[in-house]
Amino acid sequence: MKLLTISPSLDIRFAAVILLVMGLSTPGQAEIVSLDSSNIDDVLNNAGVALVNFYADWCRFSQMLHPIFEEASNIVREEFPDTKQVVFARVDCDQHSDIAQRYRITKYPTLKLFRNGMMMKREYRGQRSVTAIADFIRQQQVDPVKEIHSMEEVNTIDRSKRNIIGYFEKKDSDNYHTYEKVANILRDDCTFLAAFDAVSQPERFSGDNIIYKPMGEGVPDLVYLGSLTNFDLTYAWAQDKCVPLVREITFENGE
């Protein structure tokens, strides 16, 4: 009886094929940033959008979420490769209880959304699935500002909603970038619109400006009188208009 022999060169080629197949079938390394007191402010402040998983290792639901969160991160990173545009991060709340207290985390896992370092009021309460989490991040990348192409459009806006309209000489300006940043943070509370160049000229008699149109017909508009390059002032003014003192509490806005 003859034994089948395989040449050394065939062994090498066979091993190479196996390694190639393994490489193709192995999922990419998830880019999840572990946050602690030394890096959390720097990471979040420099992220356009950050989704943070606050977890505890002993929690079974936290353990179940880990691979889902990592796979969602892989999918999102392929679509948004800029590491400062979207960040997936996590906090071990047992190891970093000070951070958990800072953000009032009382249950695990909790997914919180941050924009430019500011925590959004509404935590992620969607399905804990790869598709749902990835879709949620895609929605956060949609421009919250609708462009107005004629002043006639202003007369047709939905007055059952709170509307803020910005009039700018050009889109690539510090004034508009401040407005856009505010719109991103308050996108769930107000409708934001903007007009540029010749379209906005009739409303720019004193320079770039923004106007709040309250809910209801016949209610007078309110003009922002502060500096548009000052984010804190602009945000405080818009938040005061978009977030009423008395609100209906629902499952989505309970935070």
TrEMBL record:
Pfam families given in the database record: Thioredoxin, Thioredoxin_6
Which domain of life does the UniProt lineage start with?
A: Eukaryota
UniProt entry tagged with the keyword tRNA-binding: no
Kindly state which keywords UniProt assigns to this record, in alphabetical order: Signal
Report domain Thioredoxin positions.
20-142
First and last residue of the signal peptide: 1-30
PROSITE patterns in alphabetical order:
THIOREDOXIN_2
What name is this protein filed under? Answer: Endoplasmic reticulum resident protein 44
Q: Which organism is it from?
A: Ataeniobius toweri
